[in-house]
Amino acid sequence: MWAVNTTELATTPDTRARTIVVLASGQGSLLKAIAAGAGDSYTVGAVVCDRHCPAADWAAGQGLPCFVVGLAPGADRAEWNRRLAETVAAVEPDLVVSAGFMKILGPEFIDRFHGSILNTHPALLPSFPGAHAVADALAYGVTVTGCTVHEIDEGVDTGRIVAQVAVPVLPGDSQEVLHERIKVEERALIVTVLQAADPMHPTITG
Ligand code: GRF
């Protein structure tokens, strides 16, 4: 019979790099920053996209495992969520990061990875949830907006807030200019969170 030293098991810290799966739909600048920040704390196990996009092309060009799980117009969304979950689960990730993924994840996906899915959003939640956060913030006339990393739950950008950074709105800002200023902070913030000892509950200072 094997003898197991339970004291050692209980006290030895887990120093293994976490495996993360990145979900993306667009240009992939967040994905690139996440990949550049990989190292001792995490590795990118795969990139999963809902469409052919620059993020998918870049991942494939880097030799990262990349899967496109498309949702045809009118197709069964629950079935798509299950296919997406199967694809992600095959990588056995410790963490799933939605980084510019432009589809809402359903319960068939969320239940599978409950408590280990993060999203990055280009506004200071709970203000301006949804797909038009930057335009909505500009239209409202706020002078400060920002970005939020939050846990994904079944609402639209309603999950527990994990980390935030404020970004000024400057006179004359267009949506594009403001979004790019936010994305500079978004890229840094998601990497900081992922490199934390406990990315779901990071201690971020400064
Ligand atoms: C980010 O601002 C993200 O929060 C939003 O879309 C943008 C993605 O940018 N949902 P990119 O494709 O990673 O460059």
UniProtKB/TrEMBL annotation:
PANTHER family: PHOSPHORIBOSYLGLYCINAMIDE FORMYLTRANSFERASE. Pathway: Purine metabolism; IMP biosynthesis via de novo pathway; N(2)-formyl-N(1)-(5-phospho-D-ribosyl)glycinamide from N(1)-(5-phospho-D-ribosyl)glycinamide (10-formyl THF route): step 1/1. Gene3D superfamilies: Formyl transferase, N-terminal domain. Its EC number is 2.1.2.2. It comes from the Bacteria. GO terms for cellular component: cytosol. Keywords: Purine biosynthesis, Transferase. One of its GO terms (biological process) is 'de novo' IMP biosynthetic process. Catalyzes the transfer of a formyl group from 10-formyltetrahydrofolate to 5-phospho-ribosyl-glycinamide (GAR), producing 5-phospho-ribosyl-N-formylglycinamide (FGAR) and tetrahydrofolate. The keyword Transferase applies. Belongs to the GART family. The record marks D157 as: Raises pKa of active site His. (6R)-10-formyltetrahydrofolate binds at R77, M102, K103, I104, L105, N119. It catalyses: N(1)-(5-phospho-beta-D-ribosyl)glycinamide + (6R)-10-formyltetrahydrofolate = N(2)-formyl-N(1)-(5-phospho-beta-D-ribosyl)glycinamide + (6S)-5,6,7,8-tetrahydrofolate + H(+). NCBIfam families: PurN (TIGR00639). Residues 20-194 form the Formyl transferase N-terminal domain. This is Phosphoribosylglycinamide formyltransferase. CDD domains: FMT_core_GART. SUPFAM superfamilies: Formyltransferase (SSF53328). The active site is at H121. One of its GO terms (molecular function) is phosphoribosylglycinamide formyltransferase activity.
